[in-house]
Model the fold of this input.
Amino acid sequence: MHERYEAALDAVAYLQTTIPDVIVYSAIVHWHPVAAKHRLPRDVSYWKTLNAEMIVWATKLRVLLIEGWKSSIGVQDEIKQAQYLLKPVEGLLWKCVDDWASGLR
Done:
């Protein structure tokens, strides 16, 4: 989980700095440190309502295409929710994010 969190941190920074006027929200970036510190459940059912509500407010869903995204129950739930709400769903290639982040290191 921590590796996905680190990847999402880079992706949020990448999107925020490379796409003008974008407002980026990432559930894992926002909630992972809170959940870890306070031992909140990691089960997808605990987070499903919160994630669905954030998608209601979103104009689009971008999925970071890192290892495990296809098998992630949470990610697949978010995709289904976005599609149900007729929100665009786009993939974000990890290589683009990693190349950008590597230039900062």
In short: The chain has five helices and two strands. The helical segments are 2-18, 27-38, 44-57, 73-84, 94-102.
